[in-house]
Design brief:
It is built from one helix and eleven strands, in the order βββαββββββββ. By secondary structure, it is mostly beta strands. The chain is globular.
């Protein structure tokens, strides 16, 4: 089972931007939908953004809609999440995950049970 690896987290000022990257291996990564989730202090893990296997369908949580862009490079087996206009409430550990499915509906892609492999996470801290 391929475990994705996140990178790109760190400290950023409010109003700034960050690009997170998720890397995987082979078709076990490139043929499946990928989701980004986050878990803030004392909070449950929540969906942030996701896309299907070829990147033609993209979905965003309301909390980041208009500020986030998710994309993938299948040749490089990477998925990127860019968030701009950062807010202190964006502070969280960000996880990427590989779905059971190549394609998922806007509803299903938000469920943690849709995913069978999770990365270790990368911390994002937004200073006010």
């Amino acid at each position: 089972q391929v475990q994705p690896v996140e990178s790109g987290g760190g400290l950023a000022p409010a109003g700034g931007s960050l690009i997170l990257s998720c890397a995987g291996t082979g078709r076990a990564f490139s043929d499946y939908a990928i989701g980004w989730f986050r878990q803030g202090p004392g909070l449950e893990r929540e969906f942030v953004a996701g896309l299907n296997f070829d990147g033609s369908k993209k979905y965003y949580a309301d909390s980041v809609k208009g500020r986030a862009t998710v994309s993938r490079d299948r040749a490089k087996n990477t998925v990127a999440l860019q968030i701009s206009s950062l807010k202190p409430e964006d502070t969280a550990v960000y996880y990427c995950a590989i779905s059971h499915y190549g394609d998922a509906s806007p509803t299903v892609i938000q469920y943690t049970t849709t995913y069978n492999s999770w990365g270790q996470g990368t911390q994002v801290t937004v200073s006010s």
